[in-house]
Amino acid sequence: MDKRILLIEDERKIAELVRDYLEQYGYRVKIIEDFTRVMEEFTAWQPHLVILDIHLPYQDGYYLCRRIRQLSAVPILFLSARKSEMEQIMGIESGGDDYITKPFDIEVLAAKVKAIFRRVYGEYAKKGKMDHTIVIGDLVLQIDQMALLFRDTKQSLTKNEVKLLHLLFEQAGRVVTREDCLEALWDEIDFVDDNTLTVNIARVRKKLSQWNLDDLIETKRGVGYRFNPSRLRGEKGK
Ligand code: CA
Q: Could you tell me the domains of the chain?
């Protein structure tokens, strides 16, 4: 299995040490260099684990953790200051899975990383496959199981519906062009055209409307579609 880690740590020496060490174990580690573009890097790299420092330029680790949690259930390991229990609590509260205190022993960090991979991906790693899910608010897209969950209920999805929702969820809040949607739907076997896209968007909307989640997917006439997660938050008040 391809094991990608995103390392968000502004102390370059520590970042390089961690990267070099973990790469010996077969992990592929990307270090953030431009801290104004962390979320873009996250979306592009699609990591299986995020190692997240707290004190960072521009935005702190708690804020980034919450942003990542709006998009993904990926495990997040915080790097917190030694003996700062407050930092550890805040890290977990903002959606982190575990933490390690600085200064840390590189072997202890590697052991934690391995444990997280085993716990989260172990069963799937053996099959050469990971359980890929994307969480937005109360909506959970289960890519491998081809299902969409909302609170305690589940609806099954077709292959095309999964591909579309995967793309729209990943780009949540942004307009996705029809061209990009078509590219996501493209298949070597089945014929895909503009009509396929329109029909599949309508089907996905119909499934969402069964949960009274209307207008989550907005049409941008002549451009494409936008998944608007703020409407999901609004729904809670009803
Ligand atoms: Ca730092």
A: 4-121 (3.40.50.2300), 130-233 (1.10.10.10)
